[in-house]
Amino acid sequence: MGVIDLLVTIIVVTILVTIALGVMTYIAYKLRLSRRPASVDDEVTGPRFFVLRQPPAAGARSSEGHVTEA
Amino acid sequence: MASRRRTFISLLLTVGVVGGSVWLTLWALQSPLAVQRFLVRLVVISLIIFLAILFVRYFSLLWFAFLQLLEKTMQPQRKEVSLPPVSVIVPAYNEGAVLESAIDALLRIDYPTFEIIVVDDGSSDDTLAVAQRWEGQHGGVEVRAFTKANGGKATALNTGIAQARYAFVLCMDADSAIAPDTLREAMPHFGDPSVGAVAGNVKVVNRVNLLTRLQALEYIEGLNMPRRAQGFIAAVNIVPGPVGLFRIEALQEVGGYDNDTFAEDADLTLKLITAGWKIVYEENAIAWTQAPTRVLDLVQQRYRWTRGILQAIRKRKRILVQPFPDFPLWMSGMEMAFEGVLWPVLNVYGHLFFALVALLYGMGELLLYWWILLTLLDLVAALITVAMEEESLSLVPLAVIYRFFFILFLDVTKTFAAVEEAFRLGMEWGKLRRITYREQAGIGGP
Question: pTM of the full predicted structure?
Answer without folding.
Answer: 0.81
